[in-house]
Queue: 2 jobs
Job 1
Amino acid sequence: MAFRSFILPFLCSLTAANAVTVYNQLPLGSQSTATDSASLASYTGSAAYNPTVLNPPPIPNPAPGTQFAINLMPTADLVPGISIEAPSSFFGLSIEMSVATQVLGLNGSFINVPFLNLMSLIIERAGEVQVRVGGNTQDYATLVGSTVDGKAIEKQSIDPNNPTATPTIIFTEELLYMLSNISSLANVKWFLGVPFNDTQNIHLEIVESGERILGDTLLGFQVGNEPDLYAQHQHRPSTYAPSDYTTEFGQWRDAWQNDANIPVKNNMIGPSLSLANWALEDVWNTGFLTDYQTQLSALSVEKYPADNCAALYAGLGTPVVPQDVYAEYLTHYSGVNIVKPMLNSTMIAQQQGKPFIMFETNSASCGGFAGVSNSFGIALWALDYGLQMVFSNFTHALVHVGGQNVYYNPFTPPPTNQSTFHQWSVGPIFYPLMIMPEILGKSNTSQVVDLWPNSGSDQTPGYAIYENNQLARVALFNYMTDPTGAMAYTANISMGGGETGQQQTVPASVKVKYLLADSVSQLWNITWANQTLGGQFEADGRLIGEEQIETVQCDTTANVCPIRVPAPGFALVMMTDDSASGSEPTGTMTFATTALTKTANTATIDQSVLETSNGHSGKDRIIGGSTSKGSSGAGKAAGITPSVTVLVAMLAGAGMFMKVFSR
Ligand SMILES: *[C@@H]1O[C@H](CO)[C@@H](O)[C@H](O)[C@H]1NC(C)=O
Ligand SMILES: *[C@@H]1O[C@H](CO)[C@@H](O)[C@H](O)[C@H]1NC(C)=O
Ligand SMILES: *[C@@H]1O[C@H](CO)[C@@H](O)[C@H](O)[C@H]1NC(C)=O
Ligand SMILES: *[C@@H]1O[C@H](CO)[C@@H](O)[C@H](O)[C@H]1NC(C)=O
Ligand SMILES: *[C@@H]1O[C@H](CO)[C@@H](O)[C@H](O)[C@H]1NC(C)=O
Ligand SMILES: *[C@@H]1O[C@H](CO)[C@@H](O)[C@H](O)[C@H]1NC(C)=O
Ligand SMILES: *[C@@H]1O[C@H](CO)[C@@H](O)[C@H](O)[C@H]1NC(C)=O
Ligand SMILES: *[C@@H]1O[C@H](CO)[C@@H](O)[C@H](O)[C@H]1NC(C)=O
Ligand SMILES: *[C@@H]1O[C@H](CO)[C@@H](O)[C@H](O)[C@H]1NC(C)=O
Ligand SMILES: *[C@@H]1O[C@H](CO)[C@@H](O)[C@H](O)[C@H]1NC(C)=O
């Protein structure tokens, strides 16, 4: 207690976002808040299922225009300030190490099928997905030969009221085998983190085992996690400074170089600042970049635009009221302001020839905000923020996944005791992960420019995307919610002209895909080109519904393609046939579920219900034999809950019980 009374005033004095991550899974029911506005029958009380629906922010006064022109250069070389080339797999995931066995699977032979399916949705668009397993827990994680109960990860419980307490976790090589086995099924690449708590006793075991087990699927190791918070969290003396971090990084570098069991010497990643207490320049000024030029494979940062820590921990002041901050996300300025402190560093990274990675981000640390972080509005925000990072020359951005006790998850497995009758819940922020590679295309040559259309309205941002120097796509946002339809806008896209005298006109027609919901505050049933991952406990990781791509006729004489964007909504405009085919998914590899672990009613399971749900590509799949609860007539007729389909598949060594459908 003395400890807390010492540390809390110090924490309160901080104005910057405090990126404390909440690790331990609080008991179900302990997270209900006074803001709950509805009670769903299935509501368990965990933040991940909080049913709060906020009011959409009012239309600004004066209202933005609803008719405006966007004139685009036909090639990237004519666009001043355009970004460097971004990879299709720009967006990836960051998974808190302590929840890895909830999200990924239990061990190398027990992998969560919905996770594989969700990764496949990204991979069929991006070619790969980059996933970081780490977080604050990595700093104290110890690789051991075995655990008492045989689990891949064991975690000691901590005081949930102490924001500075970091649980120590122990894990076995089984965790690494699980990652490796996932990569053999879906093209997932991994980042791991080293235990940086102790530079007197450097533990390189995770690097040795990681390299041996993961091989080419291992992208690199994070060395230090938010070191600018170490002093504040009492993990280092209060004097801990950027120069101390640089010195410790060097101690690790030296041990690494001298370890004969580590074949790869140049995949260290840092400094992963939270930007709460230090600026990146504070680290650059210590000689970090020149000292470790050879060993650094990427530069990293971890930034949340806000935090909800006061709602979780006593002594941090009045908790934020989510409704009060909602509008701060539903504006183009949000992403623009988040990246500002990093722009000097993305230029420095270019000069150094290093990728610059947003290693961990989401709407707000300490779990996010109810009704904000899990709303359709945050899907628009994340796409806009993501494109802003691309425009600002970031290389990748990893969206954080927490446990049951956060609002901001891209996806959440059901609570363990509900896994036999519930499926996963896919949050709105998953859709941007799937859509970004469609926006960027598959070529890894995408260059992006922020257009600031509509006289620079923050409510109607837009970006143009060029691939191989050619105009490929246009991304248009509408943050406003207006059920009357009056605030839907039409953007007149034209090409060429301008001061350069380029004569090039729009094609006869363009294809458009929409990301839609009725309101920014809608929580579930968001659609991308009419396909959805459904509602709470409804997702097995495969899209449902028929894909619908609009064709918009352009006026080639007037050189105008009029694109309507609903309020709210996002539109992706494919400016050429190539850019349309270049971003379409290649056909989904889906992982069906023939290995039933437990079922609610095994006696009457109708195998055909499962079979008909298997193997459809995202494109072709219709609701017919869905595995979603309540949506299959056949299942109902048989008197069972169709969602008894399994959460997990067994991939035991002897053979694959899990069918892999590839098309
Ligand atoms: C799951 O566990 C929680 C907490 O122990 C309990 O409140 C809840 O009723 C359980 N649900 C089911 C379906 O068993
Ligand atoms: C958009 O294009 C339409 C059809 O070409 C035209 O009537 C309208 O004036 C244009 N609006 C703007 C703001 O350019
Ligand atoms: C993996 O987990 C499953 C389910 O708990 C268990 O049956 C199996 O024995 C585990 N396998 C290993 C190798 O630990
Ligand atoms: C999966 O992981 C287990 C360790 O649990 C390992 O024995 C097995 O060989 C792996 N399977 C594949 C296909 O890599
Ligand atoms: C670092 O963490 C490990 C694992 O929790 C622990 O055993 C060790 O004592 C810690 N070292 C320091 C200096 O805190
Ligand atoms: C960019 O960072 C470098 C290295 O820390 C520093 O010298 C320079 O002043 C910074 N420039 C700006 C505009 O912040
Ligand atoms: C991104 O990099 C390009 C090429 O160096 C540069 O022209 C542009 O200004 C950079 N963008 C930002 C926002 O810093
Ligand atoms: C883009 O990059 C990814 C990841 O490195 C790679 O798998 C893919 O083949 C690349 N695509 C092209 C067209 O080069
Ligand atoms: C989502 O859509 C399905 C099918 O239209 C419907 O049954 C379900 O009630 C919807 N869920 C929500 C939360 O709106
Ligand atoms: C959208 O998907 C639904 C199934 O979810 C389907 O019934 C409907 O016809 C689709 N709409 C269009 C326009 O394709």
Note: The radius of gyration is 24 Å.
Job 2
Amino acid sequence: MNWNEFAGWGRKVADWAQDYHMTVGDRPVRAQTAPGDMLNALPSTPPEQGEGMDEIFADFEKSVMPGITHWQHPRFFAYFSSNAAAPSVLAEFLTAAIAPQCMLWQTSPAATEMETRMMDWLRQSLGLPEVFQGVIQDSASSATLAAVLTMRERALNWQGNQQGLAGQPTLRIYCSSEVHTSVDRAIWVAGIGQANLIRVPVAGDWRGMDPAALDAAITADKAAGHLPAGVILCVGGTGTGATDPIADCIAIAAKHGLYTHVDAAWAGSAMICPEFRDYWPGIEDADSIVFNPHKWLGVQFDCSAHFLKNANDLVRTLAISPEYLKTHGHDGIINYSEWSVPLGRRFRALKIWFLIRTYGLEGLRNRIRNHIAWSRQLHDKLCAEPDFESVTPPMWSLWTFRYVPEGAGDLDALNLDLVNRINDDGRIYLTQTRVDGKLVIRFQAGTFETTEGDVMMAHDVICDIARSLS
Ligand SMILES: *Cc1c(COP(=O)(O)O)cnc(C)c1O
């Protein structure tokens, strides 16, 4: 394909994308295809001769689109929303066209400096103090891995990378039972081992870590000759929005000299609204915080904002400077590849800039406030029905419920059946989780185009389908 044919196709793609977004609400939310459908639609061998874009595009519409679950659908209430607001999609298109590698300042100075400025815009938006610096990671999982590696190096007096972990005291890291599985994987990859990730019990409505139990666990580990290295806290856990008492837990960590990382991947976006910051009092004392603008804030995936109280600890952990990567003559500039595990980096700051300038913080806050208000309205309406119960209360826009009709036998099986039937129906999309061993259904609202009508329609869909089960 020549670049002189590109613009025509670019316009066609733009028209297609506009139409897709304006009509996505007419499609079933979750893909309704069977395993193997896409695989069987694709030839088992690659073509020897090139094909025309007409044919390729037609096949895309015919074979690919039926197998897509529509994350931008206004009635996507599963997992957490992963938004792609229009201006951020335009920025991604431009980034794809320029395709810069943003590993060093000199490999794209504008990208580095915009990343610094955008991370500071986000810092201010969340009400974090000026001491925090930031870097954009590809995912919250990567940010958490970087934080765990920092905990490890700091605890080992910066010798782990060089000497490995053999012969060292056993490192210990603490978190609640409600953290995301990305924490487990960070522990595995860092060589610390699952057995040394200590699960502190949770208590209360927010299902947050019990600070006294954290203190006791650290004290016992020290007495046993282990080496406590850090505490991972969660604000808005994936299952039910579990939130640790940040100030109390950080105070315990500080007493023992431990590094703290806060995973607010989903709920962090809501902190642009000052009224929700009561959920993380004391956050200014954390060493490391991650949230995903690519979830609720509206930025096209991928874009994970990682804030650091002392970026030097991270750079000391991850920087490698071979001669061919040195940027001679530019002392004091930032090379963001020294702040993350991968070397190559995309130009992700551009889509934050496009997004925030288009809507303004006030526009973004209004959306989040609406999602939370509508979600709570639905919670109150559904859980007032005689055969539904609220299991965990709304945390921001997330809550869980069960269908509990009188005389029902196996409630886990009944609720799993219900969620599957709802998703087969296609008007809304929900997922399940477990709370204290019980299977429950989650609801969250956070998609950019969701309206109050979309959220309230979930009430009718859930009730109709539940009551049609025999
Ligand atoms: C989504 C999520 C993650 C994982 O985010 P990635 O960016 O996909 O790695 C981690 N923690 C929480 C609480 C999440 O909601």
Note: Residues 349-383 form the longest helix (35 residues).
